[in-house]
Amino acid sequence: MPHNSLPFLRGWSRDPVAVGLPFPSSPWTARRLAQATLDAAIDGGGPVLELGAGAGAVTQALIDAGCAADRLVVVERDADLCRTLERRFPGLAVLHGDALHIAELMTAAQIASVSVVLCGLPMRAVAPAAAIRCYDGAFRLMPHGGAIIQYTYGFKSPVDPGRSPPQLDATFVGREWRNVPPMAIWSYRLPDRQPTHRINGHHP
Question: Any idea what the CATH number is for the domain that residue 146 is in?
Answer without folding.
Answer: 3.40.50.150
